[in-house]
Design a protein that fits this description.
Low-confidence stretches: none
Strand content: 15-25%
Number of helices: 6
Largest sheet: 6 strands, mixed
Structural class: alpha/beta
Number of strands: 11
Oligomer: single chain
Order of helices and strands: EHEEHEHEHEEHEEHEE
Mean pLDDT: 93
């Protein structure tokens, strides 16, 4: 497990390293505009399974993805007028939209469900990573399922216990301020 501190390493270097980890099916722990998240290739069955194992998350509970912009969303989901209105009003920001997935999208977070949840966070690291990676990556919170969301790397790792050993890279932004998680709006 490697740790890069944003205060000590150029963000571009952190983004390049994180994108490389995602491309090889790995898992990252990273800061968003709301809290820390666990990231993996959102379209990979194996990578999403790793995220669920680390969190101890129910297989049937959906996970949303981080994307760079509405153009990226349109590759994977049906973007209706309601979705456009919400996206233009609240992105980037702490809004997750649940959309109908496209028919040819059936792996990773879209496996065995009809929807595709997406978010464009107001966080420079997340947006730069989405652009560099070139496709969606998971945006689930980094807490153990059913537990309180931790705001520091130390507390997250403690909460996850031995499962944290499956995290390949940590992007440490220090303790995050207390914020509300993203709002979720179903626009299917």
């Amino acid at each position: 497990m490697e740790t890069l501190r944003l205060k000590d390493v150029e963000m571009k270097d952190c983004v390049l390293r994180a994108a490389a980890i995602l491309r090889r099916g790995g898992v990252i722990l990273y800061p968003t505009d709301t809290l820390y998240g666990l990231g993996a290739d959102a379209l990979s069955d194996d990578a999403v399974a790793k995220i669920k194992r680390i969190k101890g998350r129910d297989e049937k509970k959906p996970i949303h993805a981080i994307v760079a912009d509405l153009e990226m969303v349109e590759k994977y989901a049906v973007v209706n007028e309601d979705a456009r209105v919400f996206a233009h009003a609240f992105w980037p920001g702490s809004l997750t939209l649940v959309l109908k997935k496209k028919k040819d999208v059936h792996t990773g977070i879209a496996r065995d469900i009809d929807t595709f949840g997406v978010r464009v966070p107001d966080a420079p690291f997340c947006l730069a990573l989405a652009r560099e990676f070139g496709k969606p990556y998971t945006g689930t919170s980094a807490n153990k399922s059913g537990e309180k969301q931790a705001r520091s790397i130390e507390n997250i790792l403690s909460q996850l216990g031995k499962r944290a050993l499956d995290i390949d890279l940590i992007i440490d932004a220090g303790e995050l301020p207390e914020r509300m998680p993203s709002s979720v709006v179903d626009v299917t």
